[in-house]
């Protein structure tokens, strides 16, 4: 007799974005003539950089010919791409070995799956608010006894509040935890951790033999040269950190699908020596994953080259131009805004203590603009909304104009 994994029933409410889609659909059905402007989901909108397109077309040509066709590649990813990524990290003074890289079909799956490496009884800490995948994957894997509705948080998890008082940068845990998820630039708050702030976490992790899962999916949005793009810029981080990254947000690969994880050989935890966790992730990927698309990997390699990288930077600059318009627009109607400087997300405080969902409904009904309610990212996200700078410029301008006219 088969039984289900009951941990799924512990997941609180629906996933945030389906609920937004439900409310948006209901609105569109009621008012089919009102045009909606979407500044909600972090989905890219601009077309792929031409140099990357050319590389992927070339790869397709090779696959179209028996002489040059190739089937399955290495589960860990193409060697050229892994070597290219090593060079990319060298730009920030970070030395890594190609065997420490694992190419994936995007950061989301890695962010969800990486917890499989660690014991079921490990205590997990999360930034609050955070990208929901970290929490949800740990719920499904059975690390919580359930959702505590009274406090709006899961039992057994440690939440590291990110609020106005701490500039949305979490403090290191004041209890012993085993795994800590950090994301910088952060989704949803747009906050970026400084070198010193990251170092405090690295020091904590080394002292406690804890692991940091560092999600740097938005690192290409960091323009301030003093801010780190990789956790490995901090000394000692290779002993305690796994980094997850993606081509989604800088190369527009949200649909193409390509990312990577770095599992350093120096990584150690309580019950294993250096090298073991790298081997475990290698085994995991070889067993459960058949490698990223070879076409996507050709595009990824092109994104690392001089021309490709410049074209990706132009794409990032375009979205950052949107971020500036959004932030200035929201501030002009009196909203307090954070983020949006080294990040594509603007974290805006709701007016008059309105709840996140109430302000979401207000913006939907009065301004015809879709945003993301902050409370969907964790209890500390209440009284905030996340506004995404992914969108065509003309739609972003229209959305901000509508907010200015109707608020
Ligand atoms: N990590 C963070 C923080 C994200 O915000 C997202 C997507 O929005 C991802 C990872 C997923 O990226 P990918 O498209 O590579 O799966």
Q: What does this entry show, briefly?
A:
This protein is α/β, with parallel strands linked by helices. It folds into 2 domains: 14-48 and 308-406, Aspartate Aminotransferase, domain 1; 52-305, 3-Layer(aba) Sandwich (Aspartate Aminotransferase, domain 2), CATH 3.40.640.10. Helix content is 37%, strand content 14%.
Q: Within the CATH hierarchy, at the fold level, what is the topology of the largest domain?
A: Aspartate Aminotransferase, domain 2
Number of strands: 15
Our count of helices gives 12
**Main sheet characteristics:** 7 strands, mixed
- N- to C-terminal separation? 57 Å
In quaternary terms, these chains amount to: single chain
How many domains, as an integer? 2
The first-level CATH class of the largest domain is given as: Alpha Beta
**H-E order:** HEHHEHEHEEEEHEEHEHHHEEHEEEH
**Average pLDDT for all residues:** 96
Structural shape = globular
- Are any ligands bound, and if so which? pyridoxal-5'-phosphate
What is the structural class?
A: alpha/beta
User: In order across it, which strands form the biggest sheet?
Assistant: 2-10-9-8-7-3-6
CATH superfamily grouping of the largest domain: Type I PLP-dependent aspartate aminotransferase-like (Major domain)
The CATH architecture of the largest domain is: 3-Layer(aba) Sandwich
Helix content: 25-40%
What is the gyration radius calculated from CA atoms? 21 Å
